[in-house]
Amino acid sequence: MMKRPEFRTAALGLIWLAASQLSVTAHAVGVADAAGNAQAGAGKVAMCIGCHGIEGYRAAFPEVYRVPMIGGQNAKYIEIALHDYKKGNRKYATMRAIATSLSDQDIADIAAYYAAQAPSSRNNPDK
């Protein structure tokens, strides 16, 4: 009995489609965006302020690096950056150590806190 190549190609295509759909669904379920809470974030930024709250601060380890002020920065940008440090896609040992200690909710809260800062904010570390 001869197997028809069209059937085999169609079957492989359906298997690939099903597998890719499962992968997308699993990713969407596993990495749901956490809603950030700026008020909760205020209690989680103590470790950030030590570097990001000092105007003109430069870190000297492992190399001289100008630490950016992040008050008023876009929340999504901060979230992406922290997730990239956590995954190791961004390379800075101190930030990686901090980011790996944060949950997705912590990251969302911290991002919301810094995004809510404005020059007139009372506790804005970017004044």
Automatic annotation (TrEMBL):
Signal sequence range: 1-28
Single GO MF descriptor: heme binding
Gene3D superfamilies in alphabetical order: Cytochrome c-like domain
Domain Cytochrome c: start-end pairs: 36-118
Pfam families registered for this protein in UniProt: Cytochrom_C
Keywords from the UniProt entry: Electron transport, Heme, Iron, Metal-binding, Signal, Transport
Full protein name: Cytochrome c class I
Organism whose genome encodes this protein: Candidatus Glomeribacter gigasporarum BEG34
